[in-house]
Structure formats: C-alpha cells, structure tokens
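Morning run. Coffee first, then this:
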Amino acid sequence: MVKLSKRLEEEAMRIHSEAVVIDTHCDTLMAFMPGQYGQPAARKLGERSDKGHLDLPRMREGGVDCQTFAMYTGRREGQPDALYTAMQMTDIFYREMEANEKEIVPVTSAREILAAKEVGKCSALLSIEGAEPLMGDLGILRNFYKLGVRMLSFTWNWRTPFADGLSASRAGSKLTDLGVKALEEMGRLGIVLDTSHISDTCFWNVAEVKKGPFIASHSNSRTVCDHRRNLTDDMLRALADHGGVAGMNFAPEFVAKEGPTVEKLVDHIDYIYKKVGPDHIGLGSDFDGIGTPPAGLEDASKMPNITRELVRREYAEEDIKKILGGNQLRVLGQVLK
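And here it is:
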C-alpha cells in the first residue's frame, strides 16, 4: 500500500480529482449478463459488490471518470453466436446506463467525456474486443458504430477474417485485405483501433498501413515483464510514432512474474516514460477479465494508488494527468467524430 506524508497525500488526491481518469478496458459487461436458465445477472452496475472489480460505486470511490466497457465474445475460435451475444451485451450496456442515468452517461466523443465530468457524472464508452461479432462484414461494423461502439480490436487471441491473434499467428502473417479495408472504414467513421491481443506481425502491418493514432488498450512493457501480451520496445516506439497510447494492464502475469503490486505496475510506467516519453501511457485495467489483481489495485476504488505512487516518484503534475487519462482523451479527440 502506497503511504505518503500528509502534504503529498493531499497533493495526490487533488491531482487525481482534477485529472480526467480514463480506463480503456474492462470486461465487466459479462457480469451484468443474465445467468443460465433465467438466473439473474451476477451484478448490477449501480450496486456495490464484494465480487469482481468494478461497479459504479467503486468507480466513484476510485475517481474513474470514463470507463470503456468491452464486449468480448471470443470464448472459442469461430464463435457462431458472437453477433447474438454482442447484441445482448449492447442491450445490457444501455439498460445499465438508463438505470443509472443520474450518475453515468454513455459517450461517443471526447467532448462528451469532458461534459460529463463538468456536471459530476461518470461516462462510459462501448468497445468490441475481438471482431468475431462483425462476421467479416463491414456493414455490421457500420451498424455497431450507429449503436455507439467507438473502439475495436480485430482479434482476441484467435484468427478472425481481419487479422491473426496471438494464439493463431502464422509466420509473417499480415492483416487480411478485409482488415486493411476495415482500417480505412474505421478511419472514415471515427472508431479507435485497439491492437491489444493482435499477433506481433499483424501489429507491424498495422504500424505500416495505419494513418493516425491507434492504441493498445490494455498492454504493458514486454521488457519489464516478458509476456507475449505486452509490447516490445520497438512496438512502443511505433505506437508513439503514430501518436498512440498503451493502457497499463493490471493482470498480475503481465505486471510481474512474482509478487505483482501497484508499485510494480508503475515500474512499467517508469520504463515506458524513459523510452517514449509521457505522452503515450494510459490506464487499461482489464478489470473483471483478470484473476487476482496486484496488491494495491484490488478493484476500481484503488485507482488513486497509482496517482499516489506517481507523486511519490516525483512525476510532474502535468505528466500524471496525461497518464491518468489525458493521453487517451487526446487520441479520442483526434479519432472520434
């Protein structure tokens, strides 16, 4: 647990409160889905739970201003009901937004995120993790855009009609022709490309053909912790060259091989800061999609511990605010229409 002097604690809490705190990935929508055989959902957004990692009360306590809720459907390769499941999750997302409209609003632009914070509300962005629901059809992509989706990753770990994931990469594989066309359509519409989970070779093809910024919504440094889901130094440089952002993932196996803690997560921030500067680091917790989070990051209410640790390490206030959400807000402002 990060402990500070009274003066530094007050400084950290002021910075955290003033910052626009954005988390670019959680899997919490799955917990809101009805159970088998008509059983009720495990949790509700508006009710504080002692299970999982994220709900609105814990977001409030942790000062999370904007949470990206991912729709994940790739439980197995070639998921036949992916579109059906994603449509269910879209409905759940908006029903939860309506049930808690006094405290949280769905957003599709950076302006709306700022407007929500101005009036004391949280905001929520909708994303698709793994393009299985698109069924290889750009028309379905356009329909999801109309439903509010503003972030998309082409893969989870499997192969899709757009690209290879980390568990299906062929030697030298690239984006498919459809993947390149999807990139162009996403640019036209205003949808952020997320490269977390994509194969290394497909990442490099994205860097080659993509114009403008893209993100890795929940990926850390592979040098600090050698896991294939993390980014190599060269990937971090390519991401930075495009004006993109890497969102720090709280999955324990991505943070440290032994004893993951909030301090060890900030070690990733330190390393990336030294490699590419303060403009390409963000937060992408992966809450409710991971096992036991690192000590000090047990759930969304613990987000201020990252700010505390950055203050303890004497990061400049401007850089802390960039890391907490300013960098992601910049990318959203550039990409979203």
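Strands lie at 22-26, 66-72, 104-106, 122-129, 149-153, 192-193, 215-216, 245-248, 281-283. Good start to the day.
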